[in-house]
Amino acid sequence: MIDVKTTPVPAGGSAPATIAVRSWKAPIGFSAFVVIAAVLFIGLGRDGVTNFRLSTNSDLIQLPEIPLPALATGIVATAAMATITVYAFLRAREAKKIPLWVTTLFAVIFLTAFLTWAAAGATLPMIGLLAGALTVSTPLIFGSLGGVISERVGVVNIAIEGQLLSGAFVAALVASITGNPFAGLAGAMLAGALVSTILASFSIKYFVDQIIVGVVLNVLVIGLTSFLFSTLMSGNSAAFNAPARFERIAIPLLSEIPILGPILFRQSIIVYLMYIAVVAVWFALFKTRWGLRLRAVGEHPTAADTVGIKVRATRFWNVLLAGAIVGGGGAFFSLAAVGSFQKEMTNGAGFIALAAVIFGRWDPIRATLAALLFGFATNLQSTLSIVGSPVPSEFMLMLPYIVTIFAVAGLVGYSRPPAATGKPYITS
Amino acid sequence: MSDTNDNKATPDKPDQLSAAGTGPEAAAPATVTEAPAAAPAETQEAPRQNQIVKEIVGGSAMISLLAVVLALVFGGILIALTDPVVQQTATYFFARPGDMIGAIADAVGGAYAALFRGSVFNYLRADDFAAAIRPLTATLANATPLIAAGLGVALAFRVGLFNIGGRGQILIAAAAAGYVGAYVPLPPVIHLIVALVVGLIGGAIWGGIVGLLKARTGAHEVIVTIMLNYIAFYLISFLLRTPGALQAPGQSNPRSAPMLETAQFPKIAGDAYDLNLGFILVIVATIYVWYLLNRSAMGFQFRAVGENPHAARVAGINVKATYVKVMVIAGALVGLAGVQQALGNFTGGIAAGLDAGIGFDAITVALLGRSKPVGVFFAGILFGALKAGAVTMQAAEGIPVDIVLVVQSFIVLFIAAPPLVRSIFRLPTPDPNFHWRKPKLDRKAEVAK
């Protein structure tokens, strides 16, 4: 394999018109997974049968459970993955790209085999697992959408964690006082925007380094919310920390679609808002004048300025908008997940969202998918710890962070941030 | 994140392909291949991140002082706003304004008096000098890990790297030192030294990963350090609940066995005080970093890369190697804080929460200390005092310790934004050409000749 790696990248210098780039990353990555699969699923194979339950008790249409014997599934899956890997090597030698569906198929086979292996001898409630993953991902998705907007316009947003936490705090406070969760949600968006105001004014007006401001804002919000929690909320939680919650709403008809219905359409309203937000941000960024200007400011502010776009104003208002989106996601913690505010309750979700932004290459759809993947890993960990699995939960929790390091190191894909992100626009 | 732009990402490629060729040709940015001869003459401007270094290091002590004052004022406002007596008197403010003003004075004055009692001198026990002076030693004990970690952050910062990874480096170092300290019985003195060295190596490795990734792939160190913090946290959590790794035998708590007597840092001011060997070690570390930065060839390279990596590369400095070197040393320095936590402060056994926010505090300490060793030392003592005093403040006045986080964040925000502080206090904008003594850049130019 080492020989393969050091092969010169361009295929000969004789044909400059069509420079074929051979990328061995994918087949080599696939091989690594095949090795892991062979070791885990066959070498350390486990006996027993895993039952995949595909419907909940309340469904109209009941699907039968799918039993998969752990060891046999492992062997079949490893063989299938090995076949795909060989195919990938052949494609790479012809300097052709590996189609996305092949990678997806590979991932699905690996995941199925992994689940069968990890939960051997137990029943896996797939609906609960996937619906839970979607729920866990919701704040991550809001956070990564805010991160994408902010970084696309040219301001690094390390403060996602702080915006989420401030959103969670204000949502609990406002929803408790008014008794209306929607008021809490609005308050959360304002709180996120407020944190963004500090980020925007320090970085755009005073040219303070955006990373320093972001890091400090996170701690400032932790300190402020914890201080106010102790002085205000904990002594009088009935008045200030007992918010009206967003309950789960099953959408008629849609929620009865087998498999998809219970996962996608039996969620709280924040999750439905998330669907809208993802589509809206994607559409606005790539299909509207606003989005074009936003991206121009983030990629080449001087050029944008030359054609008459107000660079600083664009940055300021879009960073505020990003903060509002993230803050709204923060309401998820106190109004949907827990039902009250707790100290430091976001617990690093903002940094996972940041990871999703990078892993999703600053694209709202890809970032959403990355956030879903990270949410799935988190929820899988809690499901598996109930079922009793051989994988230590800490390693599942570590996954998003490790994947991100691989992503920024360029080992998985190639992630390039917007060109002018992190740089203040200074005109002399 | 800003680093993987075209200017910086492209020169990485030629270096990777021909690792041996580190001459100016190989290192010259690929974007200027049309006119390679012109490249050394007009060096690229330093990246934004490195200009920040110049601003932070060159800032005046006056701004630092005013930033601390402003932050304390903001903290006071917060204390007053949340004080129940103040809230009560505010309801009849217009009838008897004196009541509310008196209540504010009581709340804020009482809080800061308690802060002073808990951090410097307990005047309530002035009859017993040994007891009255105990808060000061608590301050120094609290300051010890802050100074060590602050030095690590400051050193990386002088090279233009943000080391946000204090938490991870502390945890890994503490786990490494704690393992030796608790489970590897050795003769007295040797045990302490081995545990210390193993801990420092742990921190150095965790920091070195960051430098290596930065040098080899251009991965932004902020992202890598943040991610490594969480990886370290989960790794240590796993080891702490795994029998045979770090977990104490026969225990179900995620906690290690207590440190053996021979591995603990000895107390240096008698058993009545918390002050231990760690404080002497951080004094040594401060002197070492001062020597490294100001008197050694390596430190000169560090500062040159910090001022402008493009210029440093043209001058023949191996910038990539510098990134790795500085992160290894910075990791070891932050690791010293972890060792201090494991062998000095939490001798009853290490837990996953033992970093106690020091990783972040270190950033504030480094910024307040202007990333200079002596400045970091005194900034560490100031924050040590805040930490020690906050405990008394909570006990005596019922003010949550979280107020310290708020005050600290305000200090950093104000220090990072000198124009803001200047406009609040209506200070004049300093003349960039005015120098009390000979400008630093000139001195460097002489050395370079």
Automatic annotation (TrEMBL), chain A:
Pfam families reported in the protein's UniProt record: BPD_transp_2
A cellular component annotation (GO) from this entry: plasma membrane
Transmembrane feature ranges: 28-46, 66-88, 100-120, 126-148, 155-177, 183-204, 211-233, 263-285, 319-339, 345-362, 369-389, 395-414
Membrane topology: Multi-pass membrane protein
Localisation: Cell membrane
Principal localisation: membrane
UniProt keyword list: Cell membrane, Membrane, Transmembrane, Transmembrane helix
A molecular-function term among this protein's GO annotations: transmembrane transporter activity
PANTHER family linked: GUANOSINE ABC TRANSPORTER PERMEASE PROTEIN NUPQ, SUGAR ABC TRANSPORTER INTEGRAL MEMBRANE PROTEIN-RELATED
The protein, known as: Nucleoside ABC transporter membrane protein
Organism: Microcella alkaliphila
UniProtKB/TrEMBL annotation, chain B:
Molecular function GO labels: transmembrane transporter activity
Membrane topology: Multi-pass membrane protein
Stretches with biased composition (Basic and acidic residues): 1-15
Superkingdom, natural source: Bacteria
Keyword tags: Cell membrane, Membrane, Transmembrane, Transmembrane helix
Subcellular location: Cell membrane
InterPro entries in the record: ABC_transp_permease (IPR001851)
Assigned GO CC terms: plasma membrane
Region (Disordered): 1-46
Transmembrane intervals: 56-81, 93-116, 136-157, 192-213, 222-240, 275-293, 323-343, 349-368, 375-393, 399-417
Pfam families: BPD_transp_2
Comp. bias intervals (Low complexity): 19-46
Full protein name: Nucleoside ABC transporter membrane protein
Species this chain originates from: Microcella alkaliphila
